[in-house]
Specification:
By secondary structure, the protein is α+β, with helices and mostly antiparallel strands. It has 2 domains: 1-43; 46-197, endopeptidase fold (from Nostoc punctiforme) (Alpha-Beta Complex), CATH 3.90.1720.10. The chain has 6 helices and 8 strands. It has helices spanning 2-43, 59-64, 80-89, 106-118, 126-129, 185-190; strands spanning 99-100, 103-104, 133-136, 146-150, 156-162, 167-172, 176-181, 191-197. Strands 3-8-4-5-6-7 form a 6-stranded antiparallel beta sheet. A hairpin with a 3-residue loop joins strand 6 (167-172) and strand 7. Helix 3 packs antiparallel against helix 4. The protein is globular. The N and C termini lie far apart (77 Å). Residues 17-45 have low confidence and may be disordered.
């Protein structure tokens, strides 16, 4: 009888242990799902449906070949290496967490360009790239600065690279890597700060 009670007690303990493991596993999975959702809310730009900016250089600039790799009219002092590096990524689709030409998110795109052109390793997410930069106003922006945007909750959730004349390159949620204008209705409303990488 005592042996039977001991076996029953062991079986009950084993059942409880396995049930507990499943319960713990379900709890951890739920917790991870909630964390992923929170991270997504914090770092992923909201879905922004936009028409990419298409540069329209003057006929004279086109005739003389004074147009860079992105189709933007060249000006003295332009960093051709920056424009060429961005051109290599143009049209790459957006993918949250993506880090290559099969799909790239905004911070990975900026990180690749900075590593290639300026030999600088940046933080991986948009919000943290602020740690690599001195924040500046829109009027202080110059070629190669980063531009930060907030989501509807006021958190920095998107980053791009400023070019010139109000243009910036970024990985847009709806279009992938494109050029946009800072005076676009959405981007103007959500612009937070520029950043000059130290």
């Amino acid at each position: 009888m005592r042996k039977l009670s001991l076996i029953a007690l062991c079986a009950l303990a084993a059942a409880t242990l396995f049930t507990s493991c499943d319960t713990i596993k379900r709890f951890l999975n739920r917790d991870l799902e909630e964390e992923d959702y929170s991270m997504g809310e914090l770092y992923v730009d909201e879905y922004v449906k936009e028409v990419p900016y298409v540069p329209t250089p003057s006929a004279e600039a086109v005739r003389s070949g004074n147009v860079n790799a992105l189709g933007i009219e060249r000006e003295p002092g332009d960093n051709e290496e920056l424009y060429n590096a961005i051109q290599q990524w143009m049209g790459t689709p957006y993918r949250y967490g993506g880090n290559d030409k099969n799909g790239v998110d905004c911070s990975a795109f900026v990180g690749h360009i900075y590593l290639q052109v300026y030999n600088r390793q940046l933080h991986r997410v948009a919000n943290d790239i602020q740690l690599d930069a001195d924040l500046i106003s829109k009027s202080e922006l110059r070629e190669g600065d980063v531009v930060f945007f907030t989501n509807s909750k006021g958190r920095v959730s998107h980053v791009g690279i400023y070019l010139k004349n109000g243009l910036f390159a970024h990985s847009s949620t709806s279009r992938g890597v494109i050029i946009s204008r800072l005076d676009d209705k959405y981007w103007s409303k959500h612009f937070y700060k520029g950043g000059r990488i130290r």
